[in-house]
Amino acid sequence: MARIDLTDVGHAYSRGDGSEDWALKPLSLSFDSGKTYALVGPSGCGKTTMLNIISGLIRPSQGRVSFDGVDVTARPTRHRNIAQVFQFPVIYRSMSVRDNLAFPLECRGWEQPRIDTRVGSVAEALGLSHRLDRAARHLSADEKQLISLGRGLVRDDVAAVLMDEPLTVIDPQLKFSLRRKIRELSEQFQPTVIYVTHDQYEAMSFAQEVLVMRHGRIMQQGTPEQLFESPRSTYVGYFVGSPAMNYLDAAWDGSAATVAGVPVTPAWAPPVRAGARFQLGIRPEYVRLVQRSGPNTLPATLHSVRDHGPTRVCHVDIGGQSATVKVPREHPIPSEPLLYLEMPRAKVLPYVEGELAVVD
Ligand SMILES: Nc1ncnc2c1ncn2[C@@H]1O[C@H](COP(=O)(O)OP(=O)(O)OP(=O)(O)O)[C@@H](O)[C@H]1O
């Protein structure tokens, strides 16, 4: 498995009228060997363009791509030694499951006993051991996609496994187990995986590192925990988490913050420029519904409660601003519409003009 470095890589597709649009703004970043990454963001943010630059399907307008320090920018896909898994299964329909998995290894001249061992362990991890002798065309869509994944992971000599929305065609009920299988396989075989998805839940539950993209830029790269605990922008706070992070317009007088005239102390004192938009962000999971006023509590009105099984989501109004509170099922919800929201100071993050305020 390889370390992949993008150095000052950017890409602009030419439009018919001769103008150009940067689908990927120039950036430099590295993917460490043996780690799992997810590229996540809304449609059109440049995820597939970045993946295709890494695979060699697109030659970037500028910059350098290297695998383990070797410049591969000019190499076509077939000379990059990567495995790819696409939205739709790519399998040999007339071959058995075993032959589908073995084929990439035979092409590389592996000895038969080594092929048998490797195919056996990948099939076992995929839960396909009992299907090895079936013709692939008789399998369900999910099982076919499992084979595509298996073919991606069966070779231990690939530089990276690149996956572009591999669960799109999968039945929603099976997505969960398939996602778990991909994660188990990644832990077992430790390939460098770059996984494209528009689904933040998929990204957060699968990858060790998540890159959140917008308009051809990386807005933040970090572990799922880092993205959840300290989103660097309101964009990331809204995009990651369900429901999204709460952002409340606030005032800052140089030493203290207020929301709708009520004091709230954030985790740290932010530098706020005069006239800049100042907001306090807190995850719905960290807000507590309480009966009476106290330090860092805001009076609120309860509007509605949505049941999400193990949790309930309360929609509240704070002086004309909406917010959500996630309440574990076993916690009571006050019957009175007027209540207080307690915001633990360490979880109240200050944002200036949409960016997490950092202290120099
Ligand atoms: N072949 C192309 N020619 C011109 N523009 C393109 C081409 N492919 C992509 N684009 C544009 O580049 C931008 C980024 O597209 P890209 O497919 O990389 O985004 P994405 O995040 O993968 O989106 P999606 O999830 O919808 O595939 C979009 O504005 C898209 O319209």
TrEMBL record:
Domain spans labelled ABC transporter: 4-240
Domain of life from the UniProt record: Bacteria
Record has RNA-binding as a keyword: no
GO-annotated molecular function: ABC-type ferric iron transporter activity; ATP binding; ATP hydrolysis activity
Pfam families registered for this protein in UniProt: ABC_tran, TOBE_2
Record keywords, A-Z: ATP-binding, Cell membrane, Membrane, Nucleotide-binding, Transport
GO CC annotation, single: ATP-binding cassette (ABC) transporter complex, substrate-binding subunit-containing
PROSITE patterns linked to this entry: ABC_TRANSPORTER_2
InterPro entries xref list: AAA+_ATPase, ABC_transporter-like_ATP-bd, ABC_transpr_FbpC, ABC_transpr_MalK/UgpC-like, Mo/tungstate-bd_C_term_dom, NA-bd_OB-fold, P-loop_NTPase, Transp-assoc_OB_typ2
Protein name: Carbohydrate ABC transporter ATP-binding protein, CUT1 family
Organism (species): Intrasporangium calvum (strain ATCC 23552 / DSM 43043 / JCM 3097 / NBRC 12989 / NCIMB 10167 / NRRL B-3866 / 7 KIP)
